[in-house]
Amino acid sequence: MAPCPTSQKRFDVLVPHDNMKSVDKSSSVEDRKLLRKIDVRLLPILTLLYLLSFLDRTNIGNARIVGLAKDLEITVSEYNTSLALYFVAYVIFEIPANVSLSNSSLKNLNPQIWLPTLALLWGIASVCQGLVVNKAGLFGIRFLLGVTEAGLFPGVIFLFSVYYRRHERSWRIAIFFAGAALAGAFGGILAFAIGKMDGIGGRKGWEWIFIIEGVLTIFVSLIAYFLVPTWSHKAKFLTEPERERLLARLRADSDAGNVEKFDWFFVRQAFKDHLVWGYAMLFHGFAFALYSLSLFMPTIIASLGFQSWQAQLMTVPPNILASISICATVWSSARFNIRAPFIVGAAGVAIMGYVILLASKTAGAQYIGVHFAAAGVYTGNALLLSWPGENVAGQTKRAVAVAMQITIGDIGAITGLSGYLFRIPHLITIGYLVFAALVTTYLSIWMSRENDRRDFIARSQKDNPEPSLMQNGSRLGDRDIHYRYVYRI
């Protein structure tokens, strides 16, 4: 990220989360107007890009039940391989993409160019999925799709960190992630309509699903070049006083308004932090459920005895419910300043859905189970994905932490896709969700106790602060005693 002329070189004291409510209450009308202006510029276009990325990676599930597998003579294991190849590429390129974006020495690599270019490239890859003539071609294109989509999610999370204070990010990231659930609903309707084009232009309905949805992504990506903002200190949609106010707010809350040159020290720091691994393993547990459910939902519903066109449309209600659940739960989490109980609760709702799927004998009851599973899985993911962005200090360390979370999480996705046999994976998914709930409990207890320990040390050193901590705060990051973890309970 290019340096800001007014930036400080380090932060000494971060506002404890316990004081955030008082900070919010004292926020001026100008602050609220500034946030609304930023929201209008960032949230619609970034959410739309993520909706399209999720649509382009999961529409293969819709294409499968309208003829893809039959026409390309793809077996169940080969289909799962095509899905896994996407995530293999995603995992490989996740961390390099985010570290590159956060590296202040790469001044020409800014989100205004980087994110729309990624969208343009994966849109082209999506179109190419509709042009393949054999399984080898499908395997290759799925890998390229993973390469091109790898940088979007962590890049957006990092971009949020240079526009919003820590406690302001959670519900915005949740709105952004809600695009995934909306993609499932929108994708079902779109696939149903596009499937009617079977035979037009000599192409199959499943080919048109990839082509039309890919063209839509390309069109939006071109518009995104004019809408996605650059780094906050260069944002032209803000006036000079607004930029100065924004940077002042960020510096009072975290290191987001400061200059940090790339240093491998911070990369190693991220890999050595047990909390960073905890955030990653938490997503690992939920990602297993997220992608096995999103990619196989049409197949699951079709297996209940419904025709393919019915299954396409019947994916809409569970995804709509998931979107509503995300909005309601994340609002409540921010309102009551708690995170872990809601994540554990979301895991419980999802487990209930999978138990219904396993235990019920009727299609109606199992369809209800799909609703519970979707609501719990999507909501849990929406809550957990903002945690490292809020609780990891040091820009490079935070970029690596966010990318590690997605990378290790998507290894869970590969595991979930490699042997999907409908009923057995439901049992495994329950195990993964229980694991995620346990990791959540560990993270929340550790952060709460660590905050209490730092409060005690800070009080004891009130009249004689420890020089080494104050002088080395820029390298200590979130391990400085003045740093407080947010949403830790």
TrEMBL record:
This protein's record includes keyword Transport: yes
PROSITE patterns listed in its UniProt record: MFS (PS50850)
Native species: Collybia nuda
Subcellular location: Membrane
Protein name per the record: Major facilitator superfamily domain-containing protein
Membrane topology: Multi-pass membrane protein
Pfam families (UniProt xref): MFS_1 (PF07690)
Principal subcellular localization: membrane
One Gene Ontology MF term: transmembrane transporter activity
Start and end residues of each Major facilitator superfamily (MFS) profile domain: 42-449
UniProt keyword list: Membrane, Transmembrane, Transmembrane helix, Transport
Recorded GO CC terms: membrane
Domain of life assignment: Eukaryota
Ranges that cross the membrane: 38-55, 83-101, 113-133, 139-161, 173-194, 206-228, 276-297, 309-331, 338-359, 365-387, 399-421, 427-447
